[in-house]
Design brief:
Chains A, B: Its cofactor is pyridoxal 5'-phosphate. Chains A, B: Homodimer. Chains A, B: Belongs to the group II decarboxylase family. The structure is a homodimer. Chain A is α/β, with parallel strands linked by helices. The first copy, chain A, has 19 helices and twelve strands. In chain A, the strands form two sheets. The first copy, chain A, has a seven-stranded mixed β-sheet, with helices on both faces. In chain A, about 55% of the residues are buried. The interface between A and B is large, with 226 and 226 residues.
Chain lengths: ~525, ~525
Amino acid sequence: GRETKRSLCKLTDSRETDSPRRATEIKCCPAVRDGPALREPAVEMSAAERFIHEALEVIIDEAVKKATDVQEKVCDWQSPEKLRELLDLELKDGGESDSKILQHCKNAIRYSVKTSHPRFFNQLFAGLEPYSMVASFITEAVKTSLYTYEVAPVFTLMEDAVLKKMMELIGWDEGGDGIFNPGGSMSNMYAVNLARYRFCPDIKEVGLYNAPRLVMFTSQEGHYSISKAAALLGLGTKNVYAVPSDDRGKMIPSALEEKIELARSEGAVPFFVNATAGTTVFGAFDPVDEIADICERHSLWLHVDACWGGAALVSNQHKHLLKGIHRADSVAWNPHKMLMACLQCSAFLIKDKTSLLQRCHSAKASYLFQQDKFYDVSYDTGDKSVQCSRKPDAFKFWLMWKALGSSELERRVDRALAMARYLAQTVKKREGFHLLMKPEYANVCFWYVPPALRGLPDGPELWRKLHTVAPVIKERMMKTGSMMIGYQTHGDKPNFFRMVVINPQVSKQDLDFVLDEIHSLGKDLR
Amino acid sequence: GRETKRSLCKLTDSRETDSPRRATEIKCCPAVRDGPALREPAVEMSAAERFIHEALEVIIDEAVKKATDVQEKVCDWQSPEKLRELLDLELKDGGESDSKILQHCKNAIRYSVKTSHPRFFNQLFAGLEPYSMVASFITEAVKTSLYTYEVAPVFTLMEDAVLKKMMELIGWDEGGDGIFNPGGSMSNMYAVNLARYRFCPDIKEVGLYNAPRLVMFTSQEGHYSISKAAALLGLGTKNVYAVPSDDRGKMIPSALEEKIELARSEGAVPFFVNATAGTTVFGAFDPVDEIADICERHSLWLHVDACWGGAALVSNQHKHLLKGIHRADSVAWNPHKMLMACLQCSAFLIKDKTSLLQRCHSAKASYLFQQDKFYDVSYDTGDKSVQCSRKPDAFKFWLMWKALGSSELERRVDRALAMARYLAQTVKKREGFHLLMKPEYANVCFWYVPPALRGLPDGPELWRKLHTVAPVIKERMMKTGSMMIGYQTHGDKPNFFRMVVINPQVSKQDLDFVLDEIHSLGKDLR
């Protein structure tokens, strides 16, 4: 188009094109005129090395040793207002000395929550995995991006190796495709976008304007990212039909079929089903095999959100939880959760072998994905992504897998799940503790009922009072720094604790401590 | 709904609910029955510390010292097939010894491209920034996610501080809102989604089915992520209207106005304009002030993609390039490019102060964003994001800014741009080198014409031959490992080099070396 007439004269005339502004230009850049500032490097690398060395000592002392020491606090809670003062946040015109910066590093670690601590049970990640941590340091130090083989040869191949191994565990004997994403929510969005692209590739170009109303299905216990995907992708959150789950939190297959029929009867077009393998709250597994039957019957894309539960695939004892996952069209699986890879490490896997992932997301930027490179450009993964720059997260999983082997990964998962069962059994035996349900995975949900409430009859008054217990205990545990456990409501259930056991540094003693501590922090509540 | 009748009996009957399966359960988990495996931690932290220590020495030697040593290679090129063998990628059932893992670490660094090397000019990032590197190590070691203040108190406040300071530089005197994203492409997508949400909030719930055809505008030189956003968001890539740019690569405001009229005349609804501050190829700046006039007149959302050019805002000498940016509704700005923060460090900023960001993206997950917490939950930033888990990338910028001060950031930008001007002047003077255009920013684009082609008359034959020159020189520089520079076509222009100068370790000598080396690698080509 526009360039057709210009390239040649540009080519030969380039010496002249900019002459009119040269004088001002030089005035603006005295360094160019005066020279010396550009003759030498403007940084001193040996000073940089010294600083990095000192800082690494701080990191080992504070973020490794202290952070995993059960004698230390899990967190040194400060209110936002107080913490602002302690951190000296202001960015100024002048810089600060290295010793001050080291102090900032210490403070940053000190006032951060120690998610590696054996008493941290607040999230679906926990614990320190040394090999993965080292790998993540390397990815930071090497500082590269995964778009092309050319700038990230090692990490491109490692991502490929990890994805292949994960697909093997899923049971896709003929392989597939995949990519690591910044978090499981992104992976779930990719799934929706791919399903839509397979359903109607034209939407990529023309948008949804002439499309029929597309409907997706997920259980009421599914992760909120499915809904966020519907919003972002222009599909609309109302077109996510929530399928009822049973009282264990598992999607009811017949209810899925009913919702599909409902959508059809409304004139809408079902296209996507999300099955959850390991729900966020209860750790429940949807019956993938039965859901796959329904998807096959109705020609729907089956995505399995196994971000949390995918880890069970490494365990011979527990992989039955995901029975049927090999029938999925796509899978999201976050090794940064149960498998303890450093944040973030989230794989999106797809069974398709016709480069659907690339066709769906590609933009073919000529400055990055030149086709006349001297190597096989099918190694350039950038156009599979909606990102441009992308972190080499797979390496964090590759290195730890290499170090531990599949067998140790399996032992860790088995141990974490055994620990969750031990905790559930202990909760059941303890006075004043009530299990919501037997854990299917590593989520143990329970109420603590303080002595003063134990005599109350079942009913709204008890619930109302009980509802306030967990938040107060949470506040007290944070301020004491003794441990961290999440709490929440669910439906009309009063607040309960959701405790997640992952970290292999955790022993029975820690779990016993937790229950003692909850009682000790909450026994006066009424 | 579903839970209404159940919570109470669950609460009191929990000890009984799971009894039928208990026997099998215990059989599955011998560890629970046998006990000892759960009594002690399953990891030995002192061994972990030892390993981390040794690995950090490797990182300093290989990824800091060697990687920045001009005597070392920029890359140790291996073909994918050969590299596969060298890396021993296979993941096995058994683990490997720490010494073997350290060897894998060395190999991973050795065969990675040294983007910190003073001869790396291939991307819009380069160089080693020691403070940012240390900060990124800390974020990895601390291993947390930004959704709630509770689990990331320090990084929440630091993100806030950095965003505020960046908004100050943009010139939003009354502040605004913002969030760090995994890359500028995500930030650009956020902008499109917010513009759409402001235009019609209902689309979040009901989708695009009953919406008019929405049209967005970006220059032909704009980044491909705008097009990727249109695809992902269900708006359609055809509804991105490419506005012509002038021969410097700057959007032509009158052409924008024409395109807006065109869309209107077709019955479509314009809603979003992307102005680029620092285009990917030429480093051109769209005239933001004039574009803002047009957006005001037509009530369109103005987004400025300043991922690359935003850095000029820290320089009194160069900030005029972004004149008018304070009038933008949103800005994307990646400190990981010119400002050298570690990858990734990408800010998305929005002028709105009515929590549009949160309203547009929120899903209000009850397990994470409880409203009965004991602190001010407006500090929980998670619902501003389409991600769930999110990295504390702002810290990588905060710590280096604290160490260097705004004044040193400014000096670095001024120096990089002076260096680009020096390079351009040198290219112009050298026989056989042809500048495409005078650089407006840090992108220097030029052809190298080997002696054998210098006599050829302008015309298709010259172009065709010239087109093959850069790829061959690129192959040779990679295989020599002497330097890395990108090349590409543009419109119908034959392949040219795009060289980007960022790293303060680079001196004039390095630039002179580059031109000598190109000649030396390509002088035999014909």
